[in-house]
Amino acid sequence: FQVKSENRKTIWNTEEVPEGSEFDDTWDPREQPEYEILFKQCVGTEDVFFGMSGKDPSTACCEDIVIKIKLPETKYSDITLDIQDKVLDLRTSKKKLLLHLPYPVNSKEGRARFLSEEEILEVTLRVSRKFDFINFA
């Protein structure tokens, strides 16, 4: 086993460290809120009735990821949200969520809204994927 690194004293290569691990904080006592991950895709009548576009109900054909996070007893002004390409980092005074996303997202084109009656933060993120025979739009 040979280490391929410029500096022989390093323990690991930067490629071996998972993206988003700089956010991990095992000593943080805040609890993790309940959350739900949903996938959305844009379909038309040609998809539903005829299956012409080749899309199927799998997550491989979805364009958006929707994350619904339950934040009871929280105000909108108390929420800090940071979105990276593969990581969602949410922090409030009582809750903390570090979520490694199932697909890379476009962190610049997301949107979030706080549903105060339901005490839910809804974050919608556009999946960034390479074009293929299914995802060509």
From TrEMBL:
Organism of provenance: Grallaria varia (variegated antpitta)
One cellular component (GO) term of this entry: cytoplasm
Family: Belongs to the PIH1 family.
Pfam families referenced in this protein's UniProt entry, alphabetically: PIH1_CS
Signal peptide annotation: none
Record protein name field: PIHD3 protein
Domain PIH1D1/2/3 CS-like: 32-127
Domain of life: Eukaryota
InterPro entries referenced in this protein's UniProt entry, alphabetically: DNAAF6 (IPR026697), PIH1D1/2/3_CS-like (IPR041442)
GO terms for MF: dynein intermediate chain binding; protein-folding chaperone binding
GO terms of biological process kind: axonemal dynein complex assembly; flagellated sperm motility
